[in-house]
Design goal:
Structural class: alpha/beta
Number of helices: 13
Oligomer: single chain
Strand content: 5-15%
Shape: globular
Largest sheet: 5 strands, mixed
């Protein structure tokens, strides 16, 4: 198998993350040194919003999530209204067939529906709150030999949340308990479409119902861990390369965000030449909109360096390659 000549990106998003997605696209246009085919899937009511905002961007295609996701995931309007009114007391309603599922669950179903949009080959799952922070081409994400890869992270101390997601993944695949000192949440994730199809078939075979129904009934799950556990413990492809060095660095909380704003170039300048991370995740749920850091990103990362720029080699501080929590 040869290395592909171009990259395929897939992003689930929505109107509230439009500015984040536009900033992501600016970083792709700034740093990509190869052709990138990018598809973004958004709720149907946001399709025209994204298409209007991206009409000058010929590298991205906008599709509707509802064309990929079963209707049961979307609560009717009256149910959404009642859930807002009831607040914490809405849990009984969410357990009925009118409850739907929250947007973060829908986005996971969207990702697992990628084979409906990409016929073959590796697809990079690129969330809206991710940014590229240095030049890249196909070789930065995929081995030249064409060997397939799976990102596997082994933190010094695994979080209880990730351990719970690992247990849930094995429960969905009906596997015995196993190690929980690792996970497969990395950004961007690299998925292979035939393996995603096989994962979905496996869920249907083990549960006797459509895969989206299986995941709807599960209540919660992690798409990244489900895919990783399936490859690692069920499919076990012989030529799979498991990478343990993440491609991303993250700003996961307000404290980390403040450090980033004080010294954004430190993310790049603290690493040896050629070893800097490829992407930066500014966690979307820390309450800082992209307008609060877009100018900083523009000045520190998107503006091409000049010959008068002095290199800085401060040690890394305040950034982590740990996984974001969705």
């Amino acid at each position: 198998m040869q290395q592909p000549a171009h990259l395929q990106f897939f992003t689930p998003s929505y109107g509230g993350d439009l500015d984040r997605f536009i900033l992501l696209r600016r970083t792709v246009e700034r740093f990509a040194r190869c052709r990138v085919e990018h598809v973004v899937a958004v709720p149907r009511q946001d399709v025209s919003l994204f298409r209007d905002a991206l009409r000058q961007d010929t590298g991205v295609r906008v599709v509707a999530q509802q064309d990929l996701v079963a209707p049961m995931f979307y609560a009717p309007a009256w149910s959404r209204f009642l859930q807002k009114k009831l607040g914490r007391r809405a849990w009984r309603l969410t357990q009925t067939r009118f409850g739907g599922r929250p947007g973060w669950i829908v986005q996971q179903i969207v990702k697992l529906s990628a084979p409906e949009l990409f016929a073959e080959g590796p697809v990079c799952i690129v969330d809206s709150d991710l940014l590229f922070i240095r030049e890249f081409d196909v070789s930065d994400l995929l081995p030249a030999s064409g060997t397939r890869v799976l990102m596997r992270l082994e933190p010094q101390k695994e979080s209880a949340k990730h351990q719970n997601y690992m247990r849930k993944s094995r429960e969905l695949l009906k596997l015995a308990p196993n190690g929980e000192d690792h996970h497969f949440m990395a950004y961007p994730a690299i998925w292979y479409m035939n393996w995603v199809r096989q994962l979905r078939d496996e869920l249907e075979r083990r549960h006797g119902k459509p895969w989206q129904q299986v995941l709807y009934d599960s209540g919660f799950f992690s798409e990244y861990l489900l895919y990783g556990v399936y490859l690692d413990e069920v499919l076990r492809p012989p030529s799979l390369e498991q990478r343990k060095t993440p491609l991303h660095v993250g700003v996961w909380d307000r404290e980390g965000f403040d450090r980033f704003m004080r010294s954004p170039r430190q993310i790049l300048d603290s690493y040896p030449a050629g070893k800097a991370p490829l992407t930066l995740v500014v966690q979307s749920n820390i309450g800082m909109g992209p307008q609060s850091y877009a100018d900083t990103i523009e000045a520190a990362l998107l503006t091409p360096p000049t010959d008068t720029d002095e290199p800085r080699n401060a040690p890394p501080s305040g950034y982590a390659t740990a996984t974001k929590t969705s």
